[in-house]
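Researcher: Quick test of sequence recovery. Tokens follow.
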């Protein structure tokens, strides 16, 4: 049965083919994917390799974890399922409140009365 591995610390210039070729030294590789940022189009510095068997995956972890690959130290371990995230909501995320720099106090004198007792 195939086993998926997480590969961290990849150089940003690595391609899927280079990753597959490197991990083929440890056994049969079914797929190799470098994760790409959808906005910039650049590598995010990690990827996944699916090895054909558990034995090949274990050999790949022993061979590559902590080793130098094109000038970067790799982290290689068994991939875990992606954890569910809480849904994003609009509103006051990040602690920002209405009123700009003045908070709810009106900012630069807004909402205060002038000397004559009337509103601005």
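Model:
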């Amino acid at each position: 049965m195939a086993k998926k591995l997480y590969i961290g610390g990849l150089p940003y210039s690595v391609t899927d083919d280079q990753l597959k070729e490197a991990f083929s030294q440890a056994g049969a590789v079914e797929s190799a994917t470098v994760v790409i940022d959808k906005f910039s189009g650049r590598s995010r510095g990690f990827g996944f390799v699916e090895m054909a068997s558990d034995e090949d995956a274990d050999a790949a972890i022993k061979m590559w974890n902590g080793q130098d690959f094109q000038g970067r130290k790799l982290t290689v371990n068994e991939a875990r399922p992606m954890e569910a995230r809480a849904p994003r909501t609009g509103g006051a995320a990040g602690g920002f409140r209405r009123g700009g720099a003045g908070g709810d106090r009106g900012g630069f004198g807004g909402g205060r009365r002038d000397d004559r007792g009337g509103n601005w």
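Strands lie at 3-8, 29-36, 43-51, 68-69, 72-73, 75-78.
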